[in-house]
Every structure is written in C-alpha cells, then in structure tokens.
Design brief:
Layout lengths: L2 H19 L7 H13 L2 E6 L5 H11 L4 E5 L6 H5 E5 L5 E5 L6 E5 L6 H4 L1 H8 L1 E4 L2 E4 L5 E6 L12 H4 L2 E7 L4 H12 L12 H13 L4 H13 L9 H6 E3 L3 H17 L7 H12 L4 E2 L1 H5 L4 H13 L9
Parallel strand pairs: 1-8, 1-9, 2-5, 5-8
Antiparallel strand pairs: 3-4, 6-7, 10-11
Helix pairs in contact: 2-12, 10-12, 10-13, 12-13, 13-15
C-alpha cells in the first residue's frame, strides 16, 4: 500500500466502526471518536461520567463491532487481585492449574474502578503496561489487541479509592462523558422503550485493529510539530523555565513522558482521520485535553478558584502559541 492508500483505508475502517457504534450510542460523537483513537493507538482509556450515560454499552458495542472478546469486572471494595487476574487451583489430578480471570479478554471493562482497594487496582498495572499477568511466579501473556476501558463516577467519593498517579498515567486518554442534550435524551428513550433494539454487527476484525495500529506507527511527524507538542508538555511543568503562567500558578506537577508519547500518537491518528499522512499542529491541539488532563496535578489554589485541568491546558496552549521562545532541542 502507498501512504495515501493506507491513510484512506484507515479512515474508512475507522468510520465504519464508528458508524456501527452509533447505531447503539446516541450522540456522544467526540466520546466515541476518542475511544476509537485509543483502540487504534494501543492505549487504555478512562471514562468519567455520571451513571446511566451509556459507558458500559459503548464498550460492549465496540467489542462487537471489531469482533473481539469482551470481559467485564465490576469493581467493589471486597474484590481481590485474584478475582481480576485469575489463580492457581488444584485439579482432580492433584496438579495446580491456572484458571484465567476476566482480565484475559481483548477489551476489558473495568466498571467503577475507583471502588476497589489500591491492592486490587494494582492488579491491573502489570497488565496495562506489560500486556501480561504474573501469578504464582509464572508469566501469562495477554492476547492482542488488549484494551482496558475503565469507568468512574466523578461525584461519588464515599467508599471509593482515588486512582494513584502511577495508574492514572497508564491511561492513554481520560474522556469526560457529558449528560445528553434534550434531543439526544429523547432519542435514547425512543430507542430503549420501543419494540426493536439496535444490534450492531462486526465490521472489523482483530487483524484490522492490529493493522490500524501498525499504520499509526508509520505516520511521520515533522521536527517543528514535534517541538510544538513537546513545548506544550514542558509548559505544563510549574517548576520549568518555560512553564506557562497558568501552570506556575495552578499546578503542583506536570505530565510524565507518557503524556508526550500519548500526545504524539494521538496526533498521528487525528492526521489519518483528516486524510493526511503527516501530523499538523492542529492534530496535536485536538489531543491535548484527553491526553494530559489526568496527568497534571492541580494545587489547592486551583481548587479554591474552580480552575479545572482543561482550563489550565487551554491557557497553556495559548501561551505556547503566542510564545517567541526557541524550539526545544531534541
């Protein structure tokens, strides 16, 4: 395939999966696109929103559309790590055999992940980073593609355990799921209270997903665009010489190197969706909020003044866009 042919194939396959998901999901176009970007970029996604907004349906429909195995874990305070990864059990022949846990799926829904204890949450860390689990000293490799899609409720704090920064950093995107508009709500009610129900079919395969990921890796990025993306990441670090005014005032810590990796990779996907085989600054801007909003740690002043991570990122982008400083040397 030529570069243009690959970009066209990628966009057509992406659009086909998105159209199939929209048969079950009303509206939420940006949410669906960001979730599919994570799938194509080989990154996990954290969905944050109120209950009943279709997060679980979105994940299940995605698994059906790409014809892969779907697993679901309902996180609760009494859930143990073995309930996630699996455990060794004694068989009839007096031999220990490994019984796989629900994590052995291609697309895993970690529902209400912040309800589990840190010990159980940590059971996901190795799987999310290394694509394997270790039980009884033996390493078990997870089948690709492997994607964790976790949900959490932003307002309910009692009986929850906030995700540690190390685990948040392993999510490629953090996606905020908004409440539907009145028109969208009407469509949801009509679809779910009638006699017919949408039944999405498979429009892609496991091999298609792996091919999409391979194409994303091949997209080149110009040095000027790379410098621009890195300038945004570095400007989010309050202690740095090039920190934006908003970061200096409202941030305790900035993004890790994984933030830069996510920003660049997501920019490549946006470029392909635009029909280009090269990354533009606009592609980077589109990816900044979902890629970095969970990777900057706000301070007390930000909380007191109602300053959100998204607003800090908006002001940081504006500061970088208007800055005359020299490009970062890489």
């Amino acid at each position: 395939m030529t570069e243009n042919t690959e970009a066209t194939w990628f966009r057509d396959k992406f659009d086909a999966i998105r159209a199939e998901i929209q048969k079950a999901i009303v509206g939420q176009h940006e949410i669906v696109e960001n979730v599919l970007i994570c799938l194509a970029a080989n990154g996990h996604v954290l969905l944050e929103g109120m209950p009943g907004l279709g997060k679980t349906l979105l994940v299940r429909t995605l698994a059906s559309a790409v014809s892969v195995d779907f697993g679901r874990i309902q996180f609760t305070p009494d859930l143990m790590p073995a309930d996630v990864t699996g455990t060794n059990v004694l068989s009839e022949g007096r031999v220990f055999e490994f019984r796989k846990g629900p994590i052995f799926a291609n697309i895993l829904l970690a529902d209400e992940i912040n309800r589990a204890t840190p010990k159980t949450q940590s059971a996901l860390l190795e799987a999310m980073q290394e694509r394997c689990v270790t039980v009884g000293g033996k390493r078990h490799v997870l089948e690709e593609p492997f994607l964790v899609m976790a949900t959490q409720n932003p307002i309910e704090q009692e009986g929850t355990y906030p995700l540690p920064e190390a685990q948040l950093d392993r999510f490629f995107f953090k996606v905020l799921v908004p409440y539907p508009t009145k028109e969208e709500l009407a469509e949801v009610v009509m679809r779910t209270t009638g006699s017919t129900e949408a039944a999405p079919s498979a429009v892609a395969s496991r091999e298609d997903v792996m091919k999409m990921r391979s194409i994303v890796r091949e997209v080149p990025i110009a040095q000027a665009v790379l410098d621009y993306a890195l300038s945004i990441v570095v400007a989010c670090h309050p202690e740095g010489e090039t920190a934006s005014p908003a970061a200096r005032r409202f941030c305790n810590f900035g993004p890790s190197p994984r933030g830069a990796q996510s920003l660049i990779t997501a920019g490549k996907v946006h470029a392909l969706l635009a029909g280009r085989f090269n990354v533009a600054k606009e592609d980077i801007r589109k990816a900044v909020k979902p890629a970095l909003r969970h990777r900057i740690l706000l301070n007390f002043e930000a909380d007191a003044e109602g300053m959100s991570a998204d607003r800090v990122l908006e002001e940081t982008i504006a500061a970088v866009d208007t800055s005359d400083r020299d490009p970062i040397k890489v």
